[in-house]
Description:
- This protein is α/β, with parallel strands linked by helices and about 400 residues long.
- It is about 30% helix and about 25% strand.
- It is built from 9 helices and 19 strands.
- The two termini are about 40 Å apart.
Amino acid sequence: MGVTVVGAGVVGLLSAWQLRREGHAVTMIAPEIARDASYAAAGMLAPISEVQYGQDRLYPLMTAARAEYPAFLATLDAAVDAPTGWRENGTILLAADRSDRDAVADLVAVQQAHGMAVEPLTSGQLRRREPALAPGISKGWDVPSDHQVDPRMLASCALAALEGPLDPARFPDAGPPARRVEARVTSIGGPDAEGSHTLTLDDGTQRTAQKVLLVPGLGCADIAGLPARAPLDLRPVHGDVLRLRVRPGQLLPGEDHVLGATVRAKVAGRNVYLVPRADGGLVIGASSREDGMPGTHAGSVQELLDDAVAVLPAVKEMELEEITTRARPGTPDDIPYLGRLEGAPDVVISTGYSRHGILLAPLAARLAAALLSDDGEAALSAADRQMLAYMSPTRSLTAPEMTPTGL
Length: 407
């Protein structure tokens, strides 16, 4: 069965790969590959350190997705010889001063009460783990199961797996290499009497599709015929991300980086993360703006650098390679939309992943493929069905809470 995937961020690419593995003939329509929110993303797989108060519905999604990551990446490893940036380097939570310590400790207490693996670190343990951290750090906690991927590497790897030949011994059920159309979908119509949908592209041409997966991020509002049928409450949440590189003179003999674990810190009440890459890169972020400015915000960049230096003084001597600003598709409850388009059972919407898109991508891919497969939904577990209910595009944001399975 053919499936047209509209959008090519990490969620779209991994969904397309899942569909191909399950035997579908995939056509991807997108003007570019992973150039929107995915391009800026740091790639933290952090269901514990990302969780916040009141996220009863989001936390089960994040933990389920994190558990699926190793097996999902193994399918890519079996398909192509390309890196994904997967690193099991853990995460350390830090508080810069006493007020920050109290704020982080309160959240850690809630996390621990719900069985999350978060352990306090003594000053000595923290210094031995990460000797380059600022000496005045107030408190640290170890989150050993929060890891990372490199979204840019992951996107390239997934694209290679989608478009290349596959070993039939390893992928006996796989569909043909995916086709790619470099265009933007401007409208969707149907279904007609035969169940087909018509996609109009920005060059005026039209394509017919039997099954459609819509993964256009914030672009949902720009697809005519969609907003009225799926009035999704999406808003742009901008983030500014810095990419730096450790200079050789900053390293001691035998070192390849000044930082081992991913660091998530609270500094003067603000959040900052530092994600070390295996090649000596360092990704710094955590800014979140809803001011409508699509360009880079100078104040956010200053705060990110100030806060990063307060945590890791070596940042001040690194080379600043790149500043990237992108808008993420946010929802009122921070939970994505994933489900069938009302009145069109062969059209599935998958968007609104906000800052969790990289983490949730394997879960989103599996569930979307199940909804688009003739018998896939029947195989879904009770937990899968509850997660789909949480993410339903028609959910009521004021409805009573479902039975919580997390925070």
